[in-house]
Structures are given as structure tokens and as C-alpha cells.
Design brief:
With 220 residues, this protein is an alpha+beta fold. 39% of the residues lie in helices and 27% in strands.
């Protein structure tokens, strides 16, 4: 091979190298464009997915809130005794009783009416005794309890007489004597005696009556 042929080959190879470099740079540029376009498309789809996720979370929170508003939770564990509303879509007014629940724990809370003239004798923490307001009262021992709350103001009864409400927590959920038991349920009528020192409020009420009876018998 002559020198001129070798020189021609060198020139040709250099030209091929320049062309190859140009093609490589062009391929790198196109690859960068494709990569940028792909990233841009992925980021766009990711933003759309995040937006959809936020919307779904908001809808889910609304559903949870709606469900929470339609779910009733009892403050105590017990057995449902009476259901007052069972119609789907029914409207319940504020303060209305929805269900009666018999608590599962041993103690119960008795709400008693206290005459206004006796309010000065009663305060939270005093011992109390509960009896049935029926002939069966003599068949069972008194149910011990404790005053938990006294209303700060009077309430007017249906017959127009004012009274204070006293909440008494009992030690058991039933009356008992020997092996006989009589369980308490919401709505039952009972009488309450609150202990004041060595006496009860009932003693203070009955003593004047007893004194009057004794005086009348003495006069006879």
C-alpha cells in the first residue's frame, strides 16, 4: 500500500470518527429528551394520583363523619331493655330518650326527688338506703348507696311543685335477703333515705308526725 493510500485511509477513518461522534451526541440528546419527557409525564401522573387520593380521603372523612353521627354509643356496658325509636330515617329531638339500658356492672344510679325544705341536710358523699316502693319492700333488706350529686337548682314537677334531684349510686344492682334477689330496672319506683349523722332525712320528716300522734294519744 502506497503512502497516498494510507493517508487516504487515515482521512477516511477520521471522517468516520467525526460522523460517529456526531451520531453519538445526537443519540445522547434524543435520549435526554425522552428521559425528560418520561419524567415530566410520570410527575404529572403522580400529581394527578395525589390529587385523586386527597379527594378520596376527603370523601372518606365525610363518610366517616356521617357514620359517626348515625352511631349511638352508650356510656355504660349493659343490656338494651327498651327501644323507643326503630323507624329508619326517624327524627330524634334533643334530649329525647332513645333506649333504656340496664347496666352490666353491679352498681346503679338512682335519681331521687328531694323536697326543697330538706336541701340543707343533703350533700354529696352521704350514705343512703334504697327500698322498693311497693309491698315487696319488707321482703328484702335495704340497698346501701352513696349520694353522688345534688342538683344546683330546683326543678318544677308536672304538678308545679319544686324539688331537687339527688343521684345516689348503689353498691349492688339488686335487693337481697337470704337467697332471694330482686333486680332493679330503669323506671322502677323506689324510696330513698339519706343518712344525716345517726339519722336519716326520713326520720326528720316522720318525727314531727310521730310527736303529733303521741300528743294526740296522750290527750285521749
Amino acid at each position: 500500500m502506497s503512502a497516498s493510500e494510507v493517508e487516504g485511509r487515515i482521512v477516511e477513518n477520521k471522517a468516520n470518527l467525526v460522523t460517529a461522534n456526531a451520531a453519538w451526541k445526537e443519540a445522547q440528546f434524543e435520549l435526554k429528551l425522552i428521559e425528560n419527557e418520561f419524567k415530566e409525564e410520570v410527575n404529572k401522573e403522580l400529581e394527578e394520583a395525589n390529587t385523586n387520593l386527597d379527594e378520596l380521603n376527603q370523601r372518606l372523612n365525610k363518610f366517616d363523619d356521617s357514620l359517626e353521627r348515625t352511631t349511638l354509643r352508650s356510656p355504660v356496658t349493659g343490656i338494651i331493655k327498651t327501644v323507643y325509636f326503630s323507624t329508619a330515617g326517624g327524627v330524634i329531638k334533643p334530649g329525647e330518650t332513645i333506649i333504656d339500658i340496664v347496666p352490666g356492672q353491679d352498681s346503679l344510679v338512682i335519681e331521687a326527688k328531694l323536697p326543697t325544705q330538706d336541701i340543707g341536710y343533703v350533700q354529696a358523699g352521704q350514705e343512703a338506703f334504697i327500698q322498693l316502693a311497693s309491698a315487696d319492700a319488707m321482703k328484702f333488706d335495704k340497698l346501701p348507696g352513696k349520694v353522688k350529686h345534688v342538683s344546683p337548682d330546683t326543678i318544677i314537677s308536672n304538678d308545679g311543685l319544686p324539688f331537687y334531684t339527688v343521684k345516689i349510686e348503689t353498691k349492688n344492682d339488686h335487693f337481697e335477703r337470704a337467697s332471694n334477689k330482686y333486680y332493679l330496672y330503669p323506671g322502677m319506683q323506689v324510696t330513698a333515705s339519706i343518712k344525716i349523722g345517726d339519722r336519716t332525712v326520713m326520720d326528720y320528716i316522720l318525727d314531727p308526725l310521730q310527736a303529733a300522734m303521741d300528743e294526740a294519744m296522750t290527750e285521749r
